């Protein structure tokens, strides 16, 4: 017998089968229910239209089915959509859908808030509430996929775990969510289209390597000397660049995956030629692709948008060293949906 208050999505297919058998119902209902839960990512028992009403009522009585609810949606001038989701305990998180010419990318959250307190980041300033459950991570993808189909007439093409929170502090739930997002029994998305972005926790990077992840890994570096990096990412004091480098070497050796280095450019802080030189030295240790991202100012941080000319010189310095470099604009700046801006500015205090 299932315990009262069990979340239906915490059960495996086999466990749902056992439930139906013990309840004297046909076990084939298990596959139908499982498909509704994961492949069709339904939001209530009443949507399970090929299952009889009496069976649905029994499920309703025996299980809970908490899902993410959309609180608000806000569209930017550049068509980026920021969605605020309400969790079943009343907390809020944010997800962003970014459209390009022929694809859409979902930027999703792994925690409600974040405990790491990076000084340039609105989420860091907002504080930490809790880790998300894997179903809450999965639901963001399912909802943004629906949004992509509705608004842009294409299914979601890419996912970045780059919203609120540090995914490697919630690794087990992230791992389970990715399994259901990529599984044939779930949304069947390719792991090649998923990127986990982290400020870098060396023991967890080694764990990703040992798990032979099939998705991509991006490091939010933002400064390649310890003093500067520690001043904006407090975690760097505990895990300095030398330790990070060793874990990334280990990661590359195990996975043979090229690492993406995310580098937010802050005017007058980390955009000099010396900074570019430090970055190039750091990147000598493993194959990388560098994304230079123009910072969108967050109130109260004191950091400013980078200068176009300096950005160009920074880029050229790296390219002269044969590095792969992209300059990316942050999207959705006018609705606080850009990199480092997710902090629930549009809803009441939690
Ligand atoms: Fe947390 Fe990432 Fe913001 Fe740092 S940048 S505070 S790790 S959400």
Beta strand %: 15-25%
For the termini, the CA-CA separation is 37 Å
Helical percentage: 25-40%
Spell out which ligands are present: iron/sulfur cluster
The count of strands amounts to 14
Outline, from the CA principal axes?
Answer: elongated
Encode the helix/strand succession as letters.
EHHHEEEEEEHEHEHEHEHHHEHEHE
Indicate the low-confidence ranges by residue numbers.
345-350
Largest sheet: 10 strands, mixed
Summarize model confidence as the mean pLDDT: 92
Radius of gyration: 22 Å
Class per helix and strand makeup:
alpha/beta
How many DSSP helices? 12
What strand line-up does the widest sheet have?
Answer: 3-4-5-6-9-10-11-12-13-14
Short descriptors:
350 residues; two-stranded parallel ribbon; 20% strand; alpha/beta; 10-stranded mixed β-sheet; 12 helices
List the helices and strands and how they pair.
Elements: E1 6-7, H1 13-22, H2 29-39, H3 53-62, E2 63-64, E3 69-75, E4 81-86, E5 92-99, E6 104-108, E7 111-113, H4 122-126, E8 128-131, H5 134-152, E9 158-161, H6 171-182, E10 194-198, H7 202-210, E11 216-220, H8 226-232, H9 235-238, H10 241-255, E12 259-265, H11 273-283, E13 288-294, H12 308-320, E14 324-329
Parallel strand pairs: 1-2, 6-9, 9-10, 10-11, 11-12, 12-13, 13-14
Antiparallel strand pairs: 3-4, 4-5, 5-6, 7-8
Helix pairs in contact: 1-2, 5-6, 7-10, 11-12
This protein binds iron/sulfur cluster.
Iron/sulfur cluster (SF4) is lined by residues 114, 116-118, 121, 123-124, 164-166, 199, 340.
